[in-house]
Amino acid sequence: MDAVIRCQYAGDTVEWSLSDGQVATLARPAPTFEMRSFEATVRTASVELSLVAENVSEVDGQFLSAVYWPTTRTADDDESTIVARSVAAGDRVEWTKSFGMKYSGGEDGKVGARIEGVVSGERTVDIGD
Asked: Is residue 4 part of a domain?
């Protein structure tokens, strides 16, 4: 049996045939990632967020998560950064970025940074005020 992707919309149908290699890729088990650390280091005018996650499965895969830094003192949404990396089985992804603190912080001087995606985590950061 030939494998196809079929899309039906407004009475029309379109099909794309898949090769044996594409079918094999789609049939592979998904990788599993575990968070090893999610840290925040407060600097003079910024916070450095860093994460380490490990591909604990036996297959290579794509690490994909978003890191959110709150900007509660402005009308826009939290600042988000997409972290996307190809990670071999058993390897790690390491990521670090600095975020400004000018528009961050609650009344108590604490903010919550978070990561959501193939791994999730949250870190409360005391930035003073």
From this structure: no
